[in-house]
Amino acid sequence: MYNKDGTIPDEKYEHYYKIGKSNIVNGRATFTFSNLPEGKYAVNILHDENKNGKIDKGFILPIEGVGFSNYPAIGLRNRPKFSKASFELKGNRKINVKVIYM
Asked: What distance in Å separates the CA atoms of residue 45 and residue 24, rounded to the nearest whole number?
């Protein structure tokens, strides 16, 4: 989870506000962030298949599944950025993020 402009994309996961891990069960994973102050946030998900803590890439595009809040698709012309991925948090909120495999 990110809370500042310019922090995503974050290929090595160095600029996050909060981080969490979850297991995939029946093709789905869930995670709950607790005690977040109101504000602007963006969510980035990585299916880190080889568990090395970074987004592995082929020539340019990721070879592992990635997802960002407010992004149903990503690509060379639709690169993730905080301003598009962010949402306002004012109380409890559920966010669904689609993990995309290139």
From this structure: 12
